[in-house]
Amino acid sequence: MNLQNNYEDRLNRVIAYIYDHLDDEIDLQKLADIACMSPYHWHRVYHAVRGETITSTVKRLRLHRSAGYLAQTQIPIEEVAQRSGYPNLQSFTRIFKSVYGLPPAEYRKNGGHKRFSNAMPERMHIMYDVEFRTLPAMTAATIKHTGSYMEVGKAFDRLFGWLASQNLMNDMTRTIGIYYDDPDSVPEADLQSRAGAVLSSSPELQDPIEYTGIEGGKYAVLQHKGPYAEMKSAYQWFYGTWLPQSGREAADAPCFEEYLNNPRDTAPQDLVTEIHMPLK
Q1: Torsion-angle region of residue 252: left (phi > 0), alpha (psi -120 to 50) or beta?
Q2: CA-to-CA distance for 126 and 92, rounded, in angstroms?
Q3: What is the DSSP letter of 184?
Q4: pLDDT tens digits along 220-261
């Protein structure tokens, strides 16, 4: 193993630990031990390779999960704050609002996820345009993820960390996620998905990264702007309202998402995601 890959493996261990311990206080010395690096230097390596500080990573992941709790569950806000590692509701409210634009209670009541459930049926076609596209078959470098779709970022971090270490990232790289299961009918722990990237070349990949094909053909595409936590509501409208009224039928292939900007440098309300539904 070359030194570059060795550093990537070390940082992957740190990312995996953070995802598995978001409820805990993050100990920087513990992370240095996991990375097997000097506490004087490991954080500089992480910042340089990942493009954000470890503090920014933890804050982003905790708030992302908190937005999911607020949009998709009825967990009391005080408990959401505690699970997110904030000492009190006031500090959680202040930080959540600074990132998501609304305080937690208002976000739960009137956040973007409510657009799909509150819209009048006669305005659906005006508010949520669906575009038809014919796409070529594609091949993506992917990593398999099992579990909550809200935690697929762990696989994306590992995938893009390796791609960056191999200088395989460029302006032509497309970021996609493939989602195989309905989260309302499959237990969360069993949900299957893949974090992926469509590359401009076809390099030899390193386990657990592998190539996955995406079928070409006709797709219905819904563009969603806003936090990833609101995607579930978009899917419910897309499949529950638009598809039955469209006169079309979904093909026997998984949907996929394409992410048009990066959550590391884009405010949650400005994230743009295209949901691709395959059609017969």
Answers
A1: beta
A2: 36
A3: T
A4: 999 999 999 888 888 888 988 889 889 999 999 999 999 999
Cα distances from 177 to residues 106, 165, 195, 198, 245, in angstroms, run 29, 21, 5, 10, 26
Place of tokens 């575009």: 131
- The strand ranges marked E within 62-181 are 130-135, 138-146, 174-179
**Tens digit of pLDDT for each residue in 13-48?**
888 888 888 878 888 888 888 888 887 777 778 888
DSSP 129-151: -EEEEEE--EEEEEEEEES-GGG
Q: How far is CA 97 from CA 63, 87, 94, 219, in A?
A: 10, 16, 5, 36
**SS3 assignment, position 76:** coil
Residue type, 247: G
